[in-house]
């Protein structure tokens, strides 16, 4: 008689069930929520714990209206407590404007633009309405000009378009985004002073340290990139360390 095959059982590890409020917080961190979105999660946690499901108390504690809390709570509750629904929603309109231009209008605009290449869209609008006795919007004229590239100076228009595209890809860093440190020479504020003396025009570039208020000034004949580079070279030699951050009127 054959013996029954022996069975081996592995002992199951003890698992501690995670608190659902901590799970909400962890999910928000994994989704890389912003500060405002994390605050919404904390409102829901407060409402279910300390607030004892009291809307008025929760709204008063966070300094918001009950209507605002109800809006986000309903969205959270309807999704069966899915933390994703506490993130900012898209504000794009459901029905976007149709930018199509009628073929007849497009041909008329092209004719006018070819005849008057240096006129802007407002002047062309007046000419169009006088010639065809039909009202037209300036955005339609602008759209036709862009589509067919009806510019008086094609190279200049392409250069402007390229600059705008590069600016969108690399937006300027603003001073509000900088976490200021209390160390010296961490941030310099720089400005230009223009003076006229004996029919001569001169530019004085003046960087000032944010913490120590150390100031440095140097006069140049122009405010070119070469002048700015020369100033930074001398400033670095003065403070004996690399220049980390500069704030100007045109960004940082």
Helical proportion, percent range: 40-55%
Tell me the CATH architecture of the largest domain: 2-Layer Sandwich
Termini Cα gap: 88 Å
CATH superfamily membership of the largest domain? Ribonuclease H-like superfamily/Ribonuclease H
CATH class designation of the largest domain: Alpha Beta
Question: What is the residue-averaged pLDDT?
Answer: 87
Overall SS class: alpha+beta
The name of the CATH topology of the largest domain is Nucleotidyltransferase, domain 5
Q: How many separate domains make up the residues?
A: 3
Oligomer: single chain
Order of helices and strands: HHHHHHHHEEEHE
What is the molecular shape? flat
Give me the side-by-side strand order of the main sheet.
Answer: 3-2-1-4
- How is the biggest beta sheet arranged? 4 strands, mixed
Name a few traits of the molecule.
252 residues; alpha+beta; Nucleotidyltransferase, domain 5; 3 domains; 4-stranded mixed β-sheet; 9 helices; flat
Describe this protein's structure.
- With 252 residues, the chain is α+β, with helices and mostly antiparallel strands.
- A hairpin with an 8-residue loop joins β2 and β3 (218-220).
- 10% of the residues are buried.
- It folds into three domains: 20-86; 103-169, no CATH class; 176-247, Ribonuclease H-like superfamily/Ribonuclease H (Nucleotidyltransferase, domain 5, 2-Layer Sandwich), CATH 3.30.420.
- The termini are far apart.
- It has a four-stranded mixed beta sheet with strand order 3-2-1-4.
- The protein contains nine helices and four strands, in the order ααααααααβββαβ.
- Helix content is 45%, strand content 11%.
- It is flat and about 75 Å long.
């Amino acid at each position: 008689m054959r013996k029954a095959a022996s069975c081996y059982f592995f002992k199951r590890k003890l698992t501690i069930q995670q608190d659902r409020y901590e799970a909400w917080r962890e999910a928000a961190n994994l989704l890389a929520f912003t500060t405002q979105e994390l605050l919404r999660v904390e409102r829901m946690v407060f409402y279910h714990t300390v607030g004892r499901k009291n809307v008025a108390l929760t709204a008063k504690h966070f300094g918001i209206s009950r209507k605002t809390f109800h809006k986000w709570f309903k969205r959270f509750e309807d999704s069966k407590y899915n933390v994703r629904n506490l993130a900012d929603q898209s504000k794009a309109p459901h029905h976007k404007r149709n930018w199509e231009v009628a073929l007849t209008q497009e041909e008329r605009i092209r004719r006018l633009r070819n005849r008057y290449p240096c006129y802007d869209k407002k002047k062309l609008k007046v000419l169009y309405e006088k010639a065809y006795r039909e009202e037209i919007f300036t955005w339609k004229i602008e759209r036709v000009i862009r589509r067919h590239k009806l510019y008086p100076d094609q190279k200049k228009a392409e250069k402007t378009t390229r600059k705008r595209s590069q600016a969108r890809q690399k937006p300027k860093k603003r001073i509000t985004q900088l976490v200021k440190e209390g160390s010296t020479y961490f941030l310099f504020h720089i400005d230009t002073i223009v003076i006229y003396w004996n029919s001569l025009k001169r530019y004085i570039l003046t960087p000032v340290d944010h913490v120590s208020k150390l100031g440095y000034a140097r006069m140049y004949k122009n405010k070119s990139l070469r002048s700015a580079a020369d100033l930074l070279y001398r400033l670095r030699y003065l403070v004996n360390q690399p220049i980390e951050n500069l704030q100007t009127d045109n960004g940082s």
